[in-house]
Amino acid sequence: MKIYELAQSPSARRVSIFLAEMGIDVERVSVDIRGGENLSDAFQAKSQNSLIPVLELNDGTTICESIAICRYFDESYPSKHSLFGQTPLEKAQIEMWQRIIEFKGLFVAMQAFRNLTGVYKDRETCVESWGEVSRQRLIEFLPTLDKRLSESTFVAGERFTVADISAYVMCNFMKNLDIHLDTGLPHLQAWFETVNQRPSVRP
């Protein structure tokens, strides 16, 4: 099997960290997103959304969307320390925080970046004012995570999960928007420094 990706993109980073946590190595194929390779007929035949990452199985079956890919590996290589949780309550809490981080944090950060930088203006409409609004929405979301991390060691509880991976990728990516963790967010900052020591997040 192989994964088609742009290694430094947030979505690809989520899959890479997840696989590193599981100790799974998969062949990688780099896709030139900036150059529009993902818009080619060959790539679109593999990806239902024309985006990366895409997991291609040995039989030719493909899976896109980073969390869907992570779920495939989680189910295919079961562990007593699943990053998606073990008990019904744990699974629900992880899913809850995962979605909160995606919808209020990671996706908002990506909207801000794309609209402010115009990096893909050759293929999408960019609205700078929406980028500014999105950037502010991200800033206003960070105290929610800081408060949560004043109550628990990790985002969804007392152990590292896929929700932490999404939050970590978000915190790394927001540097591109000139948003940084500081002493005003002490719990989030301490959590970030802890996660930053995990071997799985190292390039």
Automatic annotation (TrEMBL):
<dbReference type="Pfam" id="PF13409">
    <property type="entry name" value="GST_N_2"/>
</dbReference>
<dbReference type="InterPro" id="IPR004045">
    <property type="entry name" value="Glutathione_S-Trfase_N"/>
</dbReference>
<feature type="domain" description="GST C-terminal">
    <location>
        <begin position="87"/>
        <end position="203"/>
    </location>
</feature>
<dbReference type="InterPro" id="IPR034345">
    <property type="entry name" value="Gtt2-like_N"/>
</dbReference>
<dbReference type="GO" id="GO:0016740">
    <property type="term" value="F:transferase activity"/>
</dbReference>
<dbReference type="InterPro" id="IPR010987">
    <property type="entry name" value="Glutathione-S-Trfase_C-like"/>
</dbReference>
<dbReference type="Pfam" id="PF00043">
    <property type="entry name" value="GST_C"/>
</dbReference>
<feature type="domain" description="GST N-terminal">
    <location>
        <begin position="1"/>
        <end position="81"/>
    </location>
</feature>
<dbReference type="InterPro" id="IPR034346">
    <property type="entry name" value="Gtt2-like_C"/>
</dbReference>
<keyword id="KW-0808">Transferase</keyword>
<dbReference type="InterPro" id="IPR036282">
    <property type="entry name" value="Glutathione-S-Trfase_C_sf"/>
</dbReference>
<dbReference type="InterPro" id="IPR036249">
    <property type="entry name" value="Thioredoxin-like_sf"/>
</dbReference>
<dbReference type="InterPro" id="IPR004046">
    <property type="entry name" value="GST_C"/>
</dbReference>
<dbReference type="InterPro" id="IPR040079">
    <property type="entry name" value="Glutathione_S-Trfase"/>
</dbReference>
<protein>
    <submittedName>
        <fullName>Glutathione S-transferase</fullName>
    </submittedName>
</protein>
